[in-house]
Model the fold of this input.
Amino acid sequence: MARLASRCRIIRIPPGIPNLRFMAALTSIVDEENCQLLKIIRQSSRILKHLDLLEWLQGDFQNLLSHDVLIAAWGDFSLGLIQMDVISPLPNMRTRHLEECNLTPLLQSLFNSWSDQGSQTILLSANQHRWADALKEDHEMATVLRRMVTAVVHGIKDHRGRHDCLYVALTAKEDCGLRNRQMLPIVLPYIDAALRQIPSLPKSTPDDLPQEPIVEDSRLSTRESEIMEWVRLGKTNGEIATILNISTFTVKNHMQRILRKLDVVNRAQAVAKFSALSGKAA
Done:
């Protein structure tokens, strides 16, 4: 019996605390978190626009995942064909500011790290990953990002297509990193569902993407058709940028528009459809 009893001692009750009082306190904590989670799930069904999403994330949601900035990215990370959204109450942290910088390499690196670690939530400190360094020194967003202490990274893989999602929650607080790492995978499905309920914010057209006439036998512009010719020949975005004497960022933006126009999700499908439309072999 003594041997059996020793095997059954799974939970150690702290000394000096009556068993019933300890278990009641533990149950109270669990019940409170469950109630908070249920509350934010109910609130998420009422999200219709970007402002609703911001208010939801900055309200009761903070009790579960304390953060100052949430960066959402989705698309094909292997090709760098991704879109982004920034949700934050802080000044200079807006989605429109992303047009002035290129966070794609940083987010690709984070996505690869997350994938390489078995798709487990990653906790990063400012010393481990200087995310502000991905921006220009004087960029408005860089000033805010340098104040962040920790970031938690988690994602959702799309095994049916190539529309993977990555979420980065950053905070300036020093004592909530471990809790955020624990909570992000729990609340992420609800964040992802809420984000899918709202339309993307309108983006202004960059100066280096002039509006061009549409070729009669194609839905693509002259420049887009030119880029697809090089894609069909196996050239990368960087190689195409060098050939056409434009920036890689410009090529990437053109590719995003091409995928939407051709109604495909990746580069290979775009080549196949472009070749079929133009009557050329892929």
Q: What stands out?
A: The chain has a mean pLDDT of 78.
